[in-house]
Design goal:
The protein is of the alpha/beta class and 333 residues long. It has 12 helices and 11 strands.
Length: 333
């Protein structure tokens, strides 16, 4: 029989999923059009993919998680478009994510990329100019569709080619969440993270510690960043930081992150913090760290006490007396 067969090409997109409501709604708008969608989430030491995983499960979206730690740390040292209020290089970060998302799009044969960005929602990274820069510098400008604000932005390739129904795209703008919340109710979406969500680089205290790390240890490792998340931090000289656990959770984290070559200290006879000196130090460093440990412990403050000091496989007991608070204030990060 001489019949002709027409192959129906399935339209496919990848959607960047953060776990926030906007990214969920953007993906949902595209799913509603019968388009196959794969979620993509990123993780670094500063943000994870746990919320994205939950969000994707809630709307039945398959999720591909990409660890971008190496590329992200390299970018973070000198972001072309600078930092936000803290150590958040939002524009450069979005460019990096879209570059990697573009590669994923090509790898799986998808047609375009979906993001949950809303025009004007965030002054630094979601103004019209910033959105344009991010798209252009990613190298995938024509393929980046922002469904929530698409009617207010330049037409993209999937729109021109009829791969998405333009009439179903939106014209959201600004910081109001009213329409997004209405859409969430309509879709029955209840589990999503807050808009100001999740990146440690927006946290003032963490950013202060990260700046200090950059200033003194440009050859830092991922473990050094993990240590910034826990305890109180004291810079006692240009090469040495003392980190003091605030609670049992911090103490466990410090013990987990301890490596041979570090100094680990705790009070021998009294409850108190676990203290770590990453990469160790000399005898004076050990005594200073022990005196800081004594101050934050239940040990009597005006008499000498015993601290247990571990360096590699060697464990020694040292006599120490707690510093006064004013002795330590100049070191606090």
């Amino acid at each position: 029989m001489g019949g002709k067969y027409c192959k129906i090409l399935k339209i496919k997109a990848i959607a960047l999923i953060s776990g926030g409501l906007d990214s969920i709604l953007a993906a949902k708008l595209i799913l509603e059009q019968g388009i196959e969608v794969e979620g993509v989430a990123f993780k670094t030491p500063f943000f994870g993919a746990r919320k994205a995983r939950t969000a994707a499960q809630n709307i039945g979206l398959p999720l591909f998680i990409i660890d971008i730690t190496e590329e992200h740390l390299e970018m973070l040292k000198a972001p072309r478009y600078g930092y936000g209020k803290n150590m958040n290089p939002c524009i450069d970060c979005h460019i990096l994510m879209l570059k990697i998302a573009g590669k994923r799009m090509e790898a799986i044969g998808a047609d375009f990329i979906v993001t949950g960005e809303v025009l004007g929602q965030r002054p630094m990274s979601q103004g019209r100019q910033s959105l344009g820069v991010v798209a252009k510098k990613s190298g995938y400008q024509e393929y980046i569709l922002r469904p929530l604000s698409a009617k207010l932005l330049a037409e993209t390739k999937p729109e021109r080619e009829g791969k998405v129904a333009q009439q179903k795209l939106l014209d959201l703008q600004g910081r109001s969440r009213k329409r997004q919340l209405e859409m969430a109710r309509q879709y029955g979406i209840t589990n999503y993270s807050t808009p100001a969500g999740g990146c440690l680089l927006t946290d003032p205290m963490f950013s202060k510690r990260l700046k200090d790390l950059f200033a003194h240890h440009r050859d830092f490792r991922v473990r050094d960043i993990e240590l910034l998340k826990f305890g109180r931090h004291f810079r006692i000289n240009n090469t040495t930081t003392v980190i003091v656990g605030r609670n049992s959770s911090d103490n466990k984290a410090i013990q987990r992150l301890y490596e041979e070559g570090d100094i680990l200290i705790y009070m021998t006879h009294f409850p108190g913090p676990t203290v770590i000196v990453p990469y160790g130090g000399d005898e004076e460093t050990c005594y200073k760290a022990a005196a800081i440990c004594a101050y934050y412990s239940d040990a009597p403050k005006d008499v000498e006490n015993i601290a247990t000091c571990t360096i590699g496989k060697n464990v020694t007991l040292i006599t120490t007396k707690a510093f006064h608070r004013e002795d330590m204030e100049r070191w606090i990060i």
